[in-house]
Amino acid sequence: MEHHLDADMQAIHTICKDLAVRTACLVDQQNYEALVQLFTPDASLVRPGGEPLVGRAQILASYQSKPKERLTRHFVTNSVVYEADLNSARMISYVLLWSAAADSPLEAFGRKADVRQVAGQFDDYLVRTEEGWRIAQRSASFQMYRE
What we know:
Blueprint: H1 2-28, H2 32-36, E1 39-46, E2 52-54, H3 56-64, E3 70-82, E4 88-101, E5 117-129, E6 132-146
Parallel strand pairs: 1-6
Antiparallel strand pairs: 1-2, 3-4, 4-5, 5-6
């Protein structure tokens, strides 16, 4: 029985880490409708320097207000799941954010990135729902940057 629980917990860790990467990918693709489906209907999200957004509609409106010409790439790493059980988990993930202007020239190596690179993190509380695992609370913050 103990081995079965270990397998369950390993699966939960994998699912949680996938959610962190999947949310970043959807933001980079500007697919905000799919993004908000990875949050619980009453989720709370604090974007860096922002006020808490509550519920999928507020989260969606916040992301839709971002300039479409701003391209981003979120590199999510060092995700650590802790305080996990079969129905909830806490997780921290480090994030490196690069951005560029969509109208900058496309060169052999892609578009020239903005000078500023930002290192931050996601602090997530995830729960098992009828829809599967979802983010109930996320606090996204910046810790350092380089210009």
